[in-house]
Automatic annotation (TrEMBL):
Residues 38-49, 73-84 have a biased composition (Low complexity). This is SH3 domain-containing protein. It comes from Candidatus Gemmiger avistercoris. The lineage of its organism: Bacteria, Bacillati, Bacillota, Clostridia, Eubacteriales. Gene3D superfamilies: SH3 Domains. Residues 111-175 form the SH3b domain.
């Protein structure tokens, strides 16, 4: 076999190894099993297979990057991609002045609005029931926004004039 064919064959093998290493790396990234550590299975085959094909490596490596160079250059990107970004913990919502906090807190933009029935003023309570202390009153016909609700959604938490309180949905109309 001529030296030109040997060089071409060695170059072809190095390209094939680089392609295989790239495919393995991509599969590991897509499946989420790649942890970014250089000791994972993707980097070892490329670096250990290079010396095995180093019969003509002196002439091949003149100006040609080795297969392990391609793997090393992708490690910093893989490490930054593999590091999880911390997710902030949601801040628990508390409504000052209430004896009992709501079981459900409505997200901003998803808060339903209600109108107090036009025939009577409603008492705001410190908890979801008439046995809780009265913390304020809401005039008839007033529109309120629900901030939260109890487990069976028969009572809602509202804020009126800077005070939080519970209202029964029995005497409210959907706005």
């Amino acid at each position: 076999m001529s030296s030109l064919r040997k060089k071409a064959l060695v170059r072809l093998l190095l390209c094939a190894l680089a392609l295989i290493a790239t495919i393995v790396f991509c599969v590991l990234l897509l499946t989420g099993t790649f942890d970014g550590a250089p000791s994972s299975g993707a980097a070892d085959p490329a670096s250990t297979s290079e010396p095995a094909s180093s019969d003509g490596a002196g002439s091949v490596s003149e100006g040609e990057p080795a297969a392990s160079d391609a793997t090393v250059s992708s490690d910093p990107a893989a490490e930054s991609a593999a590091e999880p970004t911390p997710t902030p913990e949601p801040t628990p919502v508390t409504f000052d002045g209430l004896s009992e906090q709501p079981a459900t807190v409505y997200a901003e933009g998803e808060q339903p609005t209600f109108t107090v029935t036009p025939d009577s003023t409603m008492n705001m309570r410190a908890g979801p029931g008439t046995d809780f202390d009265r913390v304020g009153q809401i005039p008839a016909g007033t529109t309120v926004t629900a901030l939260g609700a109890n487990a069976d959604e028969t009572w809602i938490v509202v804020e009126y004039e800077g005070t939080y309180g519970w209202l029964t949905k029995e005497y409210l109309n959907a706005a």
